[in-house]
Amino acid sequence: MQEGVPTAHEGVSAVPPPHRLEPKRRLDPSGRHEPPQRQDDDDVLTVDELVVWLRLSESTVLRLLSERAIPARKVGHQWRVRRGRVRDWLDGRE
């Protein structure tokens, strides 16, 4: 063991301070801070996954998608939705 080098049991934490773990906040065009983007926001969901996540019936999810209430795209005959866009919609930002 080297002299003068603190070890973890001497009170030095190997975990960075909390401010270093938080995602950086971005400014939106108006200069306000946008909420940090979550890592799973780019996940693409199917109708079946939306049904489970939103705890809605399949017919309700399909109706919301066809009415464009939930922001989504059709790929062939199937709907695809980004998780982050649904979060924004749920929060009233979309």
Describe the structure.
The chain is built from four helices and five strands, in the order αβββααββα. With 94 residues, it is an alpha+beta fold. The chain has a domain at 46-94. The chain has a three-stranded antiparallel sheet with strand order 3-5-4. The protein has a two-stranded antiparallel ribbon with strand order 1-2. Strand 4 (73-75) and strand 5 form a beta hairpin. It is extended. The termini are far apart.
List the defining traits of the structure above.
two-stranded antiparallel sheet; alpha+beta; 5 strands; 4 helices; three-stranded antiparallel beta sheet; 94 residues
Summary, kept brief:
This protein is of the alpha+beta class. The chain has a domain of 49 residues. 31% of the residues lie in helices and 15% in strands.
Number of helices: 4
Strand order of the largest sheet: 3-5-4
Helical proportion, percent range: 25-40%
Characterize the largest beta sheet: strand count, sense, and whether it forms a barrel: 3 strands, antiparallel
GO molecular function: DNA binding
InterPro entries: HTH_17, SinI_DNA-bd
Domain Helix-turn-helix: 44-93
Biased composition (Basic and acidic residues): 19-39
List the helices and strands and how they pair.
Blueprint: H1 18-21, E1 26-27, E2 33-34, E3 44-45, H2 47-54, H3 58-66, E4 73-75, E5 78-82, H4 83-90
Antiparallel strand pairs: 1-2, 3-5, 4-5
Region (Disordered): 1-42
Biased composition (Basic and acidic residues): 19-39
InterPro entries: HTH_17, SinI_DNA-bd
